[in-house]
Amino acid sequence: MNTSHSASALTHLDSDGRARMVDVGDKAITRRTATAGGRFTSTPEVIALVASDDLPKADVLATARLAGIGGAKRTSELIPLCHQLALSSVSVDFEFGENWIDITATAKTTGKTGVEMEALTAVSIAALTLHDMTKAVDPHSVIGDIRLLSKSGGRTRPTIVPGTAAVIVASTGGAAGTREDTTGPVIAAWLGERGYSVNHTVVADVDVATELDTVLAAGPAVVITTGGTGVSPTDATPEATRAVLDRELPGIAEAIRARGLEHVPTAALSRGLAGVSGGTVIVNLPGSSGGVKDGLAVLGELLEHVVAQVAGGGAHE
Q: Is 235 one of the catalytic residues?
């Protein structure tokens, strides 16, 4: 075995083979998610007792869930070279079999490094808690198959598909079918006229971040959102957008607001952003028909140029 080659491939070892904490200072701040799984195996009788909450130590699953969440939050204290992370959420779930309980944990953050270790720690601590709470009736239970199931965010970028675009409409009423989508079709048609193949979706405001992640995974050259840019409690499109941007293009957002102010003073309330995520250009437009019209008027003079520059071409003079 070539130990020098193996050591150089490990990010937590320096060139001399000494342990180090990885420097993440230059990484982009992005939304990151990781899901891990594991299995707790015991006798069918013990599994039945846990499922029915009929053990002397009550609330077994609730306790294991809280322990897993607490373990995820303290991962940097348990694993020496892990970074401290501000977790946005941790969930721990259980699935029962005849003689096993599958444990799944998902951790999320917005930051410069991933949450794989936090998800794995949550599963491990939850499994250890299950053992602790059932050892009186089965001291020989087995914990195993702990592994990372999936992760998203960070450096992994999809291949951009030229000539493709996505339109995301942030409208809780539109997603519920109680409000007509009047802006999405206009944007989709506008992009279609410029030769783009368009994917058009309508989602509730609370689901914008998830939809943006899904859309970006397909590698569109352009994403235009509409709605959710105001100051109401449910408006969350700028926050979802900022979390995935590598670079902002503030001039585009300012130009769209300035165009709107020529018609209505409320255009000043729009918090819409524009920027680049990987090789995708993202622009937030307001949810009103007038706001979309103004935004597209601005983009009509800029979009082709900025897409070409992001792709590595276009004039720079």
A: no
